[in-house]
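Our platform keeps sequence and structure together, in a single record for each protein. Nothing more is needed to write down the fold, since each code stands for a local backbone conformation. An entry from our holdings is shown next, in its original layout:
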Amino acid sequence: MNQRILITSGPTREYLDPVRHLTNGSSGRMGAALAEAVLERGDTPVVVSGQVTVVYPSGTEVHWVETTEQMLQHSLELFPCCVGAIGAAAPCDFRPVSFSEQKIFKPKDGGYITLQLLETPDILAELGKIKQFDQWSVAFALETENGTVRAMEKLKQKHCDFVVLNGPSSIGKDEASFGVFDAVGKKQKEFFGSKRVFAVELLRIIYGQWTNRANRD
């Protein structure tokens, strides 16, 4: 039975003015690797992606976005028709309070420009609010300190079934270090290697646990 898997991928952009924006270095490599792994299992990857240069594999349903709000809205619309969601994107966590319709010029006296920021919506947390009993979700937690503690916090806050812990060294790289934790905080896997191989392993863990749960129910 072909199932649809929602995958968020890449960075988002939050514009200051028509030519400048806040963003991050997410490449979309993890999202592309996950899409390929989903296809290999005979299912359909539904990717909501920020602007990236990677090419998603043929057979992927891709929805292009720029801002975090756009990624959220597309994800909310698509998730009810999917069996699960993997939040591999790196949405911009903040946006400017106001957008300048004209290009912001440098101060003539060489002084400072004050930038006020607001938090953007938490996409996985919002999906967690509408998640049904027969759906699952996976968060990625990229941390620079207290990684395990922060990953466990995100697991609960986002109402996820799994969380993947990684670090900033994974940004833009083909290889990275990952830790996979289940809903009760038990480490299921410690992994270092290519994102392509990790994607296959992550799906094996997800599908395996979900099949066991379905059989129990």
Summary: The mean pLDDT is 89.
